[in-house]
Design brief:
This protein is an all-alpha fold. It has one domain: Amino acid/polyamine transporter I. Helix 3 packs antiparallel against helix 9 and helix 6 runs antiparallel to helix 12.
């Protein structure tokens, strides 16, 4: 029997998950597409993320104690629910593979350029698979430990680098058009907020205040992402930040406390790996749980260990970072939309129709 999570544990898991690879993937892209208004992109994306998270909580409230897979089977029936559940399983596997690839790209560029990607993939997945087999409570306790540490270790160096701040970086002569900018940066609505649909697999395990933990964690992480992009623009400038693969890493690399204290980018590297490993562990746990519930498999290990090899191979789908970023810009939002919004709305509508039919029959 899986142990329950309290409000704090759920809050920390959500915070780590939403931060996850967002610090790696999005800052450079949003600054390139929205110029000095890149930080605003993350604010309206956060509003969207809170909205769809509220939708998921509402659906769960209509079916208390049931996970996403169980709700699909209950509302859509055995076959319809099974198809939708299987689609979600594939979706979770893909997210796990892409996040794993983000880890290897970052480690390859920032720390170990000669290490093969497959070695990094397997190292990451083996550690996360062990956490998944141990259970969600173990993952949550790790997240509770690292959230305050990562907060301090990430923001103190940013504060030190305020000596390089230039307000003129926000005064680039250009017109701001809200709707075209939203359309251009719609990928920020999908990554990371639509990925959070995976939390519906662990909603039944939350013993505390689910809505507070989910919305609070999402808001906390989303605000930190927006603020980090604001700092990146103010410290590096729009032109430089948009042409760097990992602008936060560059800020840490150029930071110097004194003549004998250098290379603080190693701190950022450790922080990034900590929160990304939590994200991989959570999404892998949700994948394993979904497979176990759909196919009535009791052993998590019997599912997790084979998935290591599947996910490691799938993470090599994109040839390089440039190809992956192009896919994010062009296709990510459209691909995520059915899973984050489409299927949940379908579940809600079918549930309402069934209830309306019951009321009509009883009348």
């Amino acid at each position: 029997m899986e142990k329950k999570l309290n409000t704090l544990q759920m809050f920390c898991i959500v915070t780590c998950f939403v931060k996850g690879t967002t610090f790696l993937v999005l800052p450079s892209a949003t600054v390139m597409d929205a110029q000095q208004f890149g930080w605003l992109v993350h604010l309206w994306s956060l509003v969207f993320g809170l909205g769809i998270a509220s939708l998921w909580v509402y659906i769960f409230d209509q079916h208390p104690g049931l996970s996403l897979v169980q709700i699909c089977n209950k509302v859509l029936g055995r076959y319809g629910g099974g198809i939708v559940s299987f689609c979600y399983i594939l979706f979770f596997i893909q997210i796990t593979a892409w996040v794993t690839r983000n880890v290897s790209d970052y480690v390859h560029v920032a720390m170990m350029p000669r290490t093969p990607s497959t070695v990094i993939h397997l190292s990451c997945l083996v550690v996360c698979a062990y956490a998944v087999i141990k259970g969600i409570r173990v993952i949550s306790l790790v997240s509770v430990f690292i959230v305050p540490y990562v907060f301090v270790a990430f923001w103190v160096p940013f504060t030190v680098m305020l000596t390089e701040w230039q307000w003129r970086n926000f005064r680039i002569p250009s017109e701001f058009h809200l709707w075209p900018t939203i359309v251009e940066t719609k990928y920020a609505l999908g990554l990371p907020f639509m990925e959070s649909i995976a939390f519906m697999m662990i909603f039944p395990l939350v013993q505390g205040k689910l809505k507070t933990a989910l919305l609070g964690g999402t808001a906390s992480a989303g605000m930190q992402v927006a603020l980090s992009v604001f700092f990146v623009i103010g410290i590096l400038g729009v032109h430089r930040a948009s042409h760097l693969l990992y602008p936060e890493y560059t800020i840490f690399r150029e930071m110097v406390f004194s003549n004998f204290m250098e290379h603080f980018e190693s701190i950022l590297s450790v922080n990034v790996l900590l929160i990304v490993f939590v994200k991989v562990s959570v999404i892998l746990y949700c994948t394993v749980t979904a497979i176990a519930q759909l196919f009535a498999i009791r052993s998590r290990a019997a599912i997790t260990i084979p998935l290591i090899w599947v996910i490691s191979a799938y993470s090599l789908l994109f040839a390089n970072i440039g190809e992956y970023m192009k896919w994010i810009r062009d296709y990510l939002f459209a691909y995520y939309l059915p899973f984050g919004v489409g299927f949940p709305v379908l579940l809600l509508v079918v549930h309402w129709l069934k209830n309306a039919g019951k009321v009509a029959k009883s009348a």
